[in-house]
């Protein structure tokens, strides 16, 4: 819960967490399963100014206790993604106001939460890729036709482009970090589910639910792997363009220094 305390640095946190506890009855069957974990996700910012980065990195806490002895489910859900809120709002109760089949299977909550992470993540990577592509065009133009650009504007714009690339690269590194953290959380969760599969169940439907959960988690993990590759590729492009911008900045700075020296000599004469 300390992850949601008041902080004075960027919204996302460079950590994750997973914990669980399994209790077995005297007959060897599953008595209760308790788990808690953090998930990173991307959400649009309501306070984003025009032209600024509209995306924000956030995290959610999912806590669940499944008690077969009491036939009850206990949940603590903190700062859920908007997509998950909508799904839960329409799935928990049926039209008659009674509990739906969604909550009869405790694995549905985890599938909903893990599935919600990837879509906005792709949107954020696409946004960063587009911003880097726009900077690439400006950097290339400055290098190909520098004689058409004002010396003062060229030096200033190249410096600004370099700073923008550093910011976008930092965002990509943070995206890569949250994908890796979510993947680690997935792996921990999958390991616990496999441990549960070794226990005898009171109903065959429970075993089917765990098998379905594992299959879906494997698919989500594959999607994370593709997202990680995509973000890493965009970061490499940003590094290459940043090197070009840095080189052009030095070139323009040297040219401006020579021009200033010549102007001073002319003035003295």
Automatic annotation (TrEMBL):
It comes from the Eukaryota. Pfam families: CorA-like. Residues 2-139 form the CorA-like transporter domain. InterPro entries: CorA-like_dom (IPR058257). This is CorA-like transporter domain-containing protein. It comes from Fusarium oxysporum (Fusarium vascular wilt). The lineage of its organism: Eukaryota, Fungi, Dikarya, Ascomycota, Pezizomycotina.
């Amino acid at each position: 819960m300390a992850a949601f305390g008041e902080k004075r640095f960027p919204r996302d946190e460079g950590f994750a967490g997973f914990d669980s506890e399994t209790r077995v009855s005297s007959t060897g069957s599953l008595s209760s399963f308790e788990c808690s974990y953090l998930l990173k996700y991307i959400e649009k910012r309501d306070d984003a100014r025009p032209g600024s980065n509209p995306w924000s990195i956030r995290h959610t806490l999912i806590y669940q206790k499944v008690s077969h002895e009491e036939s009850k489910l206990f949940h603590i859900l903190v700062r859920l993604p908007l997509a998950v809120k909508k799904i839960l709002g329409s799935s928990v109760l049926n039209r008659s106001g009674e509990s739906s089949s969604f909550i009869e299977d405790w694995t549905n909550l985890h599938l909903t939460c893990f599935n919600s992470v990837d879509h906005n993540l792709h949107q954020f990577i696409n946004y960063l890729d587009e911003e880097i592509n726009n900077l690439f065009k400006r950097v290339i133009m400055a290098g190909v036709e520098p004689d058409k650009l004002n010396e003062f504007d060229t030096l200033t714009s190249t410096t600004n482009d370099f700073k923008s690339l550093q910011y976008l690269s930092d965002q990509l590194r943070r995206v890569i970090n949250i994908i890796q953290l979510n993947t680690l959380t997935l792996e921990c969760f999958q390991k616990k589910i496999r441990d549960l599969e070794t226990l005898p169940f009171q109903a065959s439907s429970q075993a089917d639910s765990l098998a379905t959960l594992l299959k879906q988690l494997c698919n989500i993990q594959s999607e994370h792997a593709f997202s990680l590759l995509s973000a890493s590729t965009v970061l490499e492009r940003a590094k290459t363009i940043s090197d070009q911008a840095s080189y052009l900045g030095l070139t323009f700075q040297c040219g401006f220094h020579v021009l200033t020296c010549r102007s001073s000599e002319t003035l003295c004469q």
